[in-house]
Amino acid sequence: MKNAVLAKRYAKALFAVGKEEDALDEYATALGEFAAMVADNPELADALANPMYPLDAREGVMREIVKATGVSAIMGNFLNLLVEKRRADILGDVAEMFQSLVDDENNTCQGVVISATELSADLQAKVQETLEKITGKRVTVTTKVDESIIGGMIAKVGDLVMDGSIKTQLEDLKESIKGSE
Questions:
Q1: Residue 72 phi, psi (nearest 5)
Q2: 181 pLDDT tier (thresholds 50, 70, 90)
Q3: pLDDT tens, 112-162?
Q4: How far apart are CA 136 and CA 145, in angstroms?
Q5: 72: helix, strand or coil
Q6: Could you tell me the CATH number of the domain that includes residue 142?
Q7: Are residue 13 and residue 74 in the same domain, yes or no?
Q8: b/e for 140-161, b at 16 or more Cβ within 10 A?
């Protein structure tokens, strides 16, 4: 809970600057990529957040990464601030919160569609159109393949989850049969 509150504060501060600079999408992309990079590299996450390392060493690591990635000066300062304030461990939460603020500003939302097989472009477009009708917002759809759902699909947009997977239907049937015994 504490991390969510902190992440929201940092996200709101960056959002205010991004709105003023008219760079919300640029900041969202950079922050998302940075958070993914840190999440994918446990050694990097440790180097940025572990208090066992001296603060100047952690700041040096962040400065080098900022320089190598070529993010804007404001984004670089923001990322350095997270390390300086010992908040590098909430980078993923900040990125998620920031994306949520940008989505609200643009009347969009993020959706995930999980299917047993890869969706065709036509089917993906129909799913996106349906989700947009349901939510009343533009939906950016990310697709994932999970063969364990057997068939059908699961669509998630914010708090809304629509589960039409064969696996869930079989589990429901199993529970129904157990309940009638």
A1: -65, 160
A2: low
A3: 999 999 999 999 999 999 999 999 999 999 999 999 999 999 999 988 999
A4: 26
A5: coil
A6: 3.40.30
A7: yes
A8: bbebeeeeebeeebbbbbeeee
